[in-house]
Amino acid sequence: LRLSNALQQALKNEELALHFQPQVSLNGHGVTGVEALLRWQPPGQPPIPPGHFIPVAEETSLICDIGNWVLARACERLQHWHRHGSGPERLSVNISARHFHSPDFTTRLETLLLQFPACRHRLTLEVTESVILENLTESRTRMARLKELGLGLSIDDFGTGYSSFAYLKELPVDELKLDRAFIRHVDTAPRDRAIIACILALARELNMTVVAEGVETEAQRDQLQRLGCPAFQGFLMARPMPEQALLEWLSGTR
Ligand code: G
Ligand code: G
Ligand code: MN
Ligand code: NA
């Protein structure tokens, strides 16, 4: 409860910030997108990672306030980068279940896209499969509407839930993010490789792109390249970083 109050205060006092982690393509040069990752920076204290406060926020509607802040901030930055010809072409944001299923989620996004039109076709929403399966009927309607708005849809932590693949055929998903758990042993474990190869083949057939998460070593990246994985995200390529560092990192790759 104390953490939750402090977090509410932090939101008001603008102690939240977005950091950014690049995603790169096969040749290791092309930047395919960037994921926005939330940070809490209390003044005079070390930053608090999202793993510590997102679960607390998710217990109440505070996650909707935080999520709306994240969306507004992401759109504002995308619009700014577009106007200045800087920054990445695409930005992904993480969306929690309660926020995704909140009644005004799509109308808020419609409003944001009117205010920041450059975000159409540049913003991707990352949801986990458990978010979708919590209410498949509603998710289907909602995702169709989000596609109409020009947003990208990505399944985060793909392959770790208890679900079947069946839901994929009826949802307008653009991207699968291969969970770190499969990547960790990709260079040493044939079974993990088999699963990844299978997901890559599935994604190709369904016209979805794939991003491998948590790529930390060259051996992992090389193995993923051999398997035909189109995009990579992880400490090997770049850590999550503040905006200024991102812009410098991007200018180094151009
Ligand atoms: O950076 P770190 O590994 O601590 O992130 C932990 C978790 O927090 C990840 O699962 C990530 O998806 C989640 N997360 C990061 N930023 C956001 C955000 O803006 N909104 C939500 N809902 N989750 C986020
Ligand atoms: O659940 P989600 O995929 O949104 O979580 C993203 C989290 O993974 C971020 O908090 C980010 O800091 C973390 N992350 C990104 N790259 C790596 C990596 O190479 N190794 C590890 N261990 N974590 C990573
Ligand atoms: Mn994510
Ligand atoms: Na993930």
UniProtKB/TrEMBL annotation:
**What transmembrane ranges does the database entry give?**
none
Taking every annotated instance into account, which residue ranges of this chain make up the domain EAL?
A: 1-254
Top-level taxon: Bacteria
Q: What is this protein called?
A: EAL domain-containing protein
Lineage of origin: Bacteria, Pseudomonadati, Pseudomonadota, Gammaproteobacteria, Aeromonadales
